[in-house]
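Memo to structure team: turn this sequence into structure tokens by end of day. - J.P.
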Amino acid sequence: MRSTFEEELSNLHLRFSEMGMMASEAIMKSVKGYIDHDKELAKDVLLKDHFINVREMDLEKDSFEMIALQQPVTSDLRMIVTVLKASSDLERIGDHAVSIAQETIRVKGEHRIPEIEKLIAEMGELSTSIVEDSLEAYLKKDEDLAREVSHRDIKIDEKSRAISKLCIEDMQKKSDNVLSGTSYMLVASYLERVGDYATNICEWVVYLNSGHVVELNNKRSNKKM
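Reply from structure team:
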């Protein structure tokens, strides 16, 4: 019985890691599609979001079944709870990748501002990196890395504020820039939320190690936007 349970737990861990890679790739592709005005890449993100959603539902179902049937305790239970909770954060990261992809398809040749698009590209790189590193912290059960990664979310917030400031200034100069400015601010807000959900994953890593739920910064993403 124990060997069967350990095999199921290992499989749960593996499938969660794969879901993390899918979510990270979705963010990376969605930002690239937006900056490059690549609607085909955006459509690819929309198409593959289905797999992220299905994986999240499967992990939730299997997690509940393992808790109910195996009645795990201590560290095993914490690992299952971590997968259950963190997979929800990954699904929401995928949702924001979809929202960015939808913006790519929606925006049709409006005024584009290279300075702002450069900041969005940088913000996308930061968001992708903290998602990937939060997953690495999970794989290694590295609480120190989780805490370090969570603090990087501050840089994403700073870039989001800088983008909003530039957009508002640009819209004030010319009303024709309102559509593109609004789009930039939306994308920045989606990436800011990605950083929040990656921070949530880091918090679950700390829980996995210590059994205590902690708040690693002053923001928590308790619901979808």
